[in-house]
Write a structure and sequence with these properties.
54% of the residues lie in helices and 0% in strands. The protein is globular and about 60 Å long.
Length: 440
Amino acid sequence: MSSPTTGRILRGPTGLGTAGLQLRPQVPAPETAGPAVRAPEVPAAEAPTVAGAENTVVETMALEAVAAGTATLGAAVPDVQRPALPVPSLPVPSLPAALTAPRATAASSGGKPKLGDPIPGLYHHPIAEPDPARVEALSLRIKAWAIDEIELYPPEWEKDFDGFSTGRYMVACHPDAPSIDHLMLAARLMVAENAVDDCYCEDLGGSPIGLGSRLLLAHTALDPLHTTPEYHPGWEASLSEDAPRRSYRSAMDYFVRASTPSQADRFRHDMARLHLGYLAEAAWAETDHVPEVWEYLAMRQFNNFRPCPTITDTVGGYELPAELHALPAMQRVIALAGNATTIVNDLYSYTKELSSPGLHLNLPVVISEREGVSRKEGYLKAVEVHNELMHAFEAESAALALACPVPTLVRFLRGVAAWLDGNHYWHRTNTHRYSLPDFW
């Protein structure tokens, strides 16, 4: 029999504080192989039904099939040797209690949020505080890597590195990671991506001028050059020339040793998307172009967080098979997730970016400029855009899980949803970096 919780999920989102996907057993199940599945025909997600409505016969049968499939959730780990990261036989930690989370509300003082409050009206799922022991252990490990292994930053950048709170960020985003070693895979890549963004694109020496060349050479630290013996040493030496390339190379070396070839190739592809988005934004900066809103959203589909949630299976110690990752329905879910979580960054970093010289493009600013509305109206409309993307992500995730109830696929969807929740948590609570505008 299907549970009321499973039924609620598969009907899609029903309002603030409900999760689009939270399929997991209460007790860890034994490891079994997932069934061989052909690419399913995934129906378009229907509009969410009213909570408590009766299921149709077809829906009830589908719910029971998914419930049966989730009995092996967290199993189906591929038969791939990962000697660097043995996966301990531990129960998967509980994910955020999004299904029962309270409705997000504005701060009580006249509706104006206090420092560290969520954005009023933003659709999100509160999560429990990340495990402080894991946060501390990961924070120490990632800082030692940054200083001792790759010499990432000079002493004057230490305060900003600590303020980024990488340990808290990654523990919040990957609640099913089996060990600190697994979390370090995500932490190194996050720090490396941030170093490239800051040093090549943003305020720590970045510039749109010549960005293409810098990004191309840095990308070869992820996707290595295959050339003749005569020219290989020159390329090899170049990988140590600056902090971004050192961090990319080291983080990717660790990731390749712990991942499957398919997972590593998936990550390289996602990073190429990211770099393409960087280049589009740089081109607009060079020509002082303010894009149309749809153009900006197209750029943000590439210049976004996508590489982070799509490694959730590697960090979790399992693999989403390539043929399931490549499903059009899965690609749509991943794109919606990346788009929604990146708009979260636009919204929380809004006041920080106002202090930058010139016109810093983000969704609220582009809406205001292109649609002729005030900065406040542009910001509040951007909140609505985010909420629509989140609802679409949750509905499409539920439709995909219903159509293809393979344990690894369902676990992956759950991991992406958890990443979105953790990403919002980090932005909301990182008061070292972010504060909200006075729009309420």
